[in-house]
Amino acid sequence: MWQRQASATVLRARQRHVADWPRSAGCSHPAAHFSSSSSRYPAPREGIEWQKFGFSLATRDTRMVVANCENGKMWEPLRVEPYGPLALEPSATILNYGQGIFEGIKAYRTTKDRIVLFRPQKNGLRFADGARRMLMPPLPTQLFLEAVSTAVRENADWVPPCGQGALYLRPLLFGSGADLGVKPSSHYTMVIYVSPVGQYFGPGTSGARMQLYKSQQRAAPSGQGNVKAVGNYAQCFSAQRMAKADGFSDVIYLDVAGEYIDEAAASNFFCVDANRVIHTPQLGSILPGVTRDTIIQLDSDIQLKQQQRALKDSDIQLNVRKVSAKVALAAKEAFLTGTGAGIAPVEHIASDEESVTFGESPGPVTQMLQKMLSDIQLERVADNQRWLHDPFVQPDFSKDSFVEPTF
Ligand SMILES: *Cc1c(COP(=O)(O)O)cnc(C)c1O
């Protein structure tokens, strides 16, 4: 019934109170209802070479979820349409002034044959925060969840087989009114389109080669570096091109003083020192990544296991504070995090003066975290934190939706 509703062309943009959804007695976790033989999850398309996908638009044979909002009014009902061009007038605010934000979320096919979204509530909260920062009408979190869930259900046969990638969802929100004036738009459009994706840095790479970059900066203090604003990205292309020409995969940006690490163009930075302390920059001008937050939360798991001596490597610590370029260049391992990249090992970091090449890539701590994360995402272990959201069951909004955002 949920499935049928989803395939209707127009979905009602309901904003029900959580309590209105029927809750299953005695079982608070939706995962427990379904055995692996459930047929509610459409099988992956036949004849697709999933392993060949990198991180780009792999197909146009998908459906997108669209909604509109006139400034000062409610969001109109969600619509499902074939992927294709959007009609925009040249005077649309997004084209002239960049009033727009985006998100990135992945849906995975798990070892239990389910399809799940990873922490979409967190993206929904960030999407709403970003909308407010750019003076756009935020999508209520529940409507956002309904929209991403619809996008997954409508494109479920594009969710790759378990372990062979993910379906990437790209929500956009932008000023689509034809206004010309230098002011917030009179109309807004929300679109979610999708593509199956594989590895971010291309298949078969053992680690990213990163350049510590001083001659351009990504974000200013008190600017919009902490928002997934469209304007933050094109400005990074030239540094990326120069870095690539010099044999690097991408750039790591420093703060305005050129001393402390901010992050990469679309992923957060972590490094591990010789004392097995994991370092990651504090929030501020960096983007508050969901993957970053997940690792910080997993650290309490690690600390617990260390106390119980259930972990072989029992001396790992995590520091969230300013990370100097020096610390990164003296590290034993490093990695980047993002929904697109996952936990992507870094094999080499170079500044103008110094460089480091890590002996083992991914290093042992990186590998441990990669495993912890993918075990949860692919349901090899119990989802104790309730981070997984099943778009095929009626939303039993998981605990994660009510946790105050840590960003
Ligand atoms: C999206 C993004 C990240 C990673 O965020 P996730 O929520 O983990 O995907 C990191 N840095 C920047 C600049 C980003 O745009």
UniProtKB/TrEMBL annotation:
Signal peptide extent: none
UniProt keyword Amino-acid biosynthesis present: yes
EC number: 2.6.1.42
Modification N6-(pyridoxal phosphate)lysine, positions: 228
Record-stated family: Belongs to the class-IV pyridoxal-phosphate-dependent aminotransferase family.
PROSITE patterns referenced in this protein's UniProt entry, alphabetically: AA_TRANSFER_CLASS_4 (PS00770)
Protein name: Branched-chain-amino-acid aminotransferase
Keywords tagged on the record: Amino-acid biosynthesis, Aminotransferase, Branched-chain amino acid biosynthesis, Pyridoxal phosphate, Transferase
Pfam family, one: Aminotran_4
InterPro entries: Aminotrans_IV, Aminotrans_IV_CS, Aminotransferase-like, B_amino_transII, BCAT-like_C, BCAT-like_N, BCAT_family
Enzyme category, top tier: transferase
